[in-house]
Write a structure and sequence with these properties.
This protein has 331 residues and is mainly alpha-helical. It has helices at residues 2-57, 65-81, 115-120, 123-138, 141-167, 181-219, 222-236, 242-246, 274-290, and strands spanning 61-63, 88-92, 99-102, 110-114. The two termini are 36 Å apart.
């Protein structure tokens, strides 16, 4: 717990510094003071409202047990296994399969999955993904992710403001150095968003490995998560996520990097190599098998489905198998 708070404080300090520097780039000393005040307000607001902000960024809509179908019931099952309060459940209308969790604490957390994820994965793979997101909630990583996305997004918006200012002659320093000039603005426009992303990368990689391991233990079978990661990774490279491309500072929140790598902001990945993550999960599966741990533990049988990788393996969701192509986006 103290380590999570320390990482959050360090991240806030670094991103606040970048944001203030961008304020200086936009408006000189006055801009720096204004940016500092705004950053303080943003830090306080993001601690309490960042989950709402992030969900709105991606147009997520909340669902309940009736409208969420099998997806909602899977989250409910996984939350029970993780001994967590039931989070709010959201769906993003996006073809790219992906998911994230947000919220400052387990008591007010939320999980969001895209329609592409729900339509592409089997129920078992979906369980693995949602268990991974619940692991973030259990580890209280979600506060760090949401705060980083909020302030990092603000840095990106200031960089875009500088870009428009340069195009329309808004940073010519006509009044004796109120800003940092054309060259300084150009450097800030390129470097600041990249620096913000690098700060987020500093905490992202080890957090994902930890959530993979805990998520696999929550769902009960590392293979479900590794199979899901393979599908999501392959799809994310060819299916663009326009909402994520517009706010690259939030890319670290997703289970797999949602950026297609077509822009300057995508030079650095906020996520570990997918093959390495899968290798870690395969090692965990061997570890569990050697310990005699059951890999197909029934969790109530409330959701029909079939296990990935497949034939001959029992499903923890009950005896009835339901092909993934037969499900609608709501389960």
């Amino acid at each position: 717990m103290p380590m999570n708070y320390a990482k959050t404080a360090l991240l806030l300090a670094a991103l606040t510094g970048i944001f203030v520097a961008m304020g200086a780039a936009v408006g000189g000393q006055n801009g720096m003071v204004i940016a500092f005040v705004v950053a303080l307000v943003m830090n306080m607001v993001s601690l309490w409202k960042s989950d709402t902000m992030v969900l709105k960024m991606f147009g997520a809509q909340q669902v309940d047990a009736q409208s969420g179908g099998a997806y909602y019931r899977i989250v409910e099952e996984m939350a029970g296994r993780a001994e967590l309060p039931m989070p709010r459940v959201y769906i993003m209308h996006n073809a790219q399969p992906n998911a994230f969790a947000t919220g400052r604490s387990p008591s007010n957390a939320a999980v969001a999955a895209s329609t592409g994820l729900i339509e592409t994965l089997t129920n078992e793979e979906l369980a693995g993904v949602m268990a991974h997101e619940l692991a973030h909630i259990k580890n209280r990583d979600t506060l760090t992710m949401a705060v980083a996305a909020t302030i990092g997004g603000a840095v990106s918006m200031l960089a875009q403001y500088l870009q428009f200012g340069m195009l329309f002659g808004g940073h010519r320093d006509q009044n004796g150095g109120g800003g940092i000039g054309m060259i300084g603005s150009l450097v800030a426009m390129i470097v600041a968003p990249m620096a913000a992303m690098l700060v987020q990368m500093a905490i992202s990689r080890s957090r994902e490995y930890q959530a993979d391991r805990m998520g696999a233990l929550i769902c009960g079978n590392p293979r479900w998560l590794s199979s899901a990661l393979t599908k999501i990774h392959n799809a994310a490279k060819r299916i663009p996520n326009e909402d994520a491309e517009a706010v690259p500072a939030a890319a670290h929140m997703f289970i797999i990097n949602p950026l297609t790598g077509q822009g300057l902001d995508n030079l650095f990945s906020t996520h570990p190599n997918t093959e390495n993550r899968i290798a870690q999960l395969e090692a965990l599966e061997r570890e569990l098998a050697a310990a005699g741990a059951p890999l197909n533990v029934p969790l109530g049988g409330s959701v029909g489905g079939r296990i990935s990788g497949g034939a001959g393996q029992a499903s923890p969701w009950g005896a009835q198998a339901e092909p993934p192509e037969a499900r609608g986006p709501w389960g």
